[in-house]
Amino acid sequence: MTASTDPENRAEPEQQRSPRTRSMAYGRSLARMRAALADPAHPLGVRALARRPVDEPAIALLDSWAIVTDIVSFYTERLTQEGFLGTATELESVRELVRTLGYELRPGIAAQADLAFSVEDTVASPETVTVPRGTPVQSIPGQDQTPQVFETETDLEARAAWNAIPAVATSTQRLDADVNGIWLTGVDSGIRPGDSLIVVDGGLATGAAWAFLVVTGVAVEPDGRTGWTLLTVRRPGGTDDPDHGPIVSKGAHVYGFAERANMFGWNAQATPSSASSVTTAPREPGGRPQEATPQRSLELDGDHPRLLPDSWLVMESDDERRLYRALAVTPSGNTHSGFSARTTKVSTDRTLPGDFVPPSTLVHCQSVQLPAERRPRSAPVAGRKLELAVTEPLLPVGRVVVVQGTDVRSGAVQAERAQVAARTVDGAGTVMTVTLDRELEHSYHPDTVAVLGNVVTATHGETVSHVLGSGDGAQQFTAVSIWRQPLTYVSGVAGAATSTLAIRVDGELWHEVASLHEAGPNDRVFVVRNAEGGTATAIFGDGVHGARLPTGTENVTATYRVGNGADGAVSAGRLTLLPRRPLGISAVANPVASHDWASAENLADARSGAPRRTRTLDRVVSVNDYEDFARGFAGVGAAQADTVWDGSRRTIVLSLVGSEGRRAGDGLLADLGAAIASARPPGGSFRVMRAAVLWFGVRIEVLHDPAYEWTTVREAVATALDLRFAPARQAFGAPVTTSAVLMVVKAVAGVAACSMPRLVRLPAPPASSEASPYLPPDTQAEQVLASSPAHWEAGEVRPAQFPALAAGAVEIAVMAP
After folding, report:
1. 286's torsion region: left (phi>0), alpha (psi -120 to 50) or beta?
2. The domain 165-169+377-453 is classified under which CATH number: 2.30.29, 1.20.140, 2.40.30, 1.20.1550?
């Protein structure tokens, strides 16, 4: 086995194909023995035997020994090969070799899932429901899948008020004289194009600022905004009331007018004695007119029973408009130019103009306030702060939640886990502002956002209990097989896989240890050894290193959980069955797919993992130690450590990718950060971040061999590219080139020729593997996609990147011959 000893060379040692041992195959062995017979030192008769065929008895004897040497050489070579870490081909050989370094191959790690429980919201339901630790939730399997059971890790206090807390999807509507659109709550406002509106600032106070608007369009539930109406308005020409100030945005109200009325006498024949119905100068005895006094009343033609006190009036004449408030409304009758009719007398809050004569004056009346205080929120929900509806009781600080909604960019429903870092309530007690512990990864449509507050973490594995066997005090190192497999392991301290196995002997709990070597003769301990296929065996002591099992009948019992690794990869929304439903719980679901699972270490993992363990020895000092420590942590697939200036000091940034190229979960980031903090010396700073994926797509033309079907060749090319450039196959710092893509395509059977591939960057992966992303035009194509290490950019630290082909992001066209 060869390996680099340069401490600065972080590349993993390459596997040596075979050991450098002397091998004696059958043909070579027989040839050497014939050559020995033909030595000139031998007599002529002996030398003549060297040329005899194998049916000669003497040569047949040599032939038999040549076969023996071939067999011995084969087994010697195999034994030598299995004795070195770099050349061993049997996993059990590697397991025994790395045990000499104190390293045990890590078993599969159970997946984690964030479960959101819903509490019954009825009168008879309890106010608080406790979901106990260990509550099982079973998945609904998809095609070619089996049901999987997850169990909650901690007790959960759930409340109906926290089931799904909606975001405040509205904001205060800013209204001013230049407004061209007004949002109304509801869909039955009764407003039609051509109706008139006023926007009044200051309520019913005299001298309120205002603006007159005309409705030009009415859109009910535009852009799918349920329960909203959008009015398109314009401000007509002319002059508004000069006695009123300019309108401002805060405290403004919108009023619509149900009727347009005429002043009494509007249709009377004009005479020199005709006077306005607004002001009429009385005469003194003797015929001399009195001095005109200001009038605060007007008469409207006809009966207007729906015109109420404290409503608004707008008098409009020759493109001049004035605003008044009705103080009193009295039905009456009047005579004008010999014409009698029903009228409505309206007392106003201020003096009426004398130049507004009935024939040219139109009165907009019967004002109705419209629900225009708020409008749909246009800005997406993003960042760390969320404005939510107030709950009773308030959502507590430190609570784990799941934010769910429709992504603005992709249009798909997304969900992500976060924790409440702070919480405040506004003065009106209607809006609860929640500050999360991190930035949201998605931007959501405000009216689709719901914060699920009854969330608890669960891990994959079903609890079973049964008798393992009977103890025999006369036996040393008694081995007892665990019946069900695979045994569940969860991520523990320093990345170790923590077993869920608990063994009791005669009712007393015995403890699992890593090795019996340091155990005393009375220590009630055992070790667990895992083998291929997920089988596990518990081994007890010999009376010197660990206590022996006491004699008894079926006195060894076990409680453990079954299930780990890739079996726990459950899609979002699949964990919905409750085998034991807690009282008061109506439903459960996993808004986010399960995460942070890891398969058992294989041959390649052990070859790289064991040397890293010897380099770090579970402590973190140098920058390279951060990377080695992280790569040996359960659930981490790849890691890169970089030293970055964060604006004030140099810090170590550790960028992570989950096992098998998956996205690292929040739990994995937190556990690794805590493990590094306990293993590193004090001082300095470091950050554990989720690596950034540089998603890309491929566009290429292929000319296929006529002997192959086109659809088969096209699917084979897409599959080959997906396998080669999938996230699990990529590495930090390794660029993707068009030549590498070209080599993959040319190696596919049935490809006669192809064009030069075009690599195009994608802003984000598709919402699902079935939805192909839109590839940018070829003008944006690149020949090399290079990823960057962790760095400081735009005032914040950015993690390291690695390129990966997005699912379904391959466009393959037919190449012209």
Report:
1. left
2. 2.40.30
